[in-house]
Amino acid sequence: MTLPNHLPASGDAGDGAGEDSFLRLGHGDLHVRQDGPHDAPALLLLHGSAASLRSWDALVPLLAPLHRVIRIDLPGHGRSPEPSGGDYTLPEQGRRIGTALDRLGVRHAIAIGHSSGGYAAAALAEQRPELVTALVLIGTGPSMSAFSAPEPTPFDPAQWPPTDDQIRQFASTGFRAGYEIPHVLVDELRAMSYGALAAAMQASTTYLTERAFPDRLAALGKPLQVLFGDQDRRWRPSSAVDYRVVPGAEVELLPGCGHTPILEEPVRTAALLLPFTKPHTSRPGGAT
Fold this sequence. Notes:
disordered N terminus, disordered C terminus, 9 strands
């Protein structure tokens, strides 16, 4: 039986907003959610490892009035199944994301990544420079030397899935001190397989060590905005200046924010992000 390329998702969409679908790709499905007018300029939002498109829930209502907001559950995360063959490498993720945007009829988009989602956004721009008009990185570390979080207690694959307490301990440095981690994100991490979590995190480490990340971005020649919380407990906040090697890069520190300002301070994040996107969205992101 031949399956269509674009099927509506079944079941609860999660927060009740947006249009959910599954895209049938060659090596597995991708779960996609869209908000905002389809003829508006497109913003692509990519989550980090151990997260899902739900991590953008607080920010999307601030973006959707002006943009076609496209969120993707990366392979093995959220409602996207693990890829056949287990290929989580960043070049493969970039290829799959580009194919997904083609299926959606998107010709141009600003790619916005949170944490390791920034590497997926860059990988997309490397493979499809005509598709990505600009990049925004939110809490995306520039190098492994900038990683400052204490080594977490490793999960035991023989005792998977982990408990709520184990997940909250693992995720605690992803937010400012005292921030209550949303339960939906705890549930979604627990629903992941150990293999998907480990492979996705290793893929990011490999991508960072293959070539200096700011140098990759400089070679792309794309407009770049970098947002960092000055209380980030995963990546050394001062390392944000490493991105200034990219000509014209806009680097902003958000006072009082941790690693995840998209959830901790969505209004302040949008107030920085929207002025940057405006000059780079003159071409529509709708159907060709």
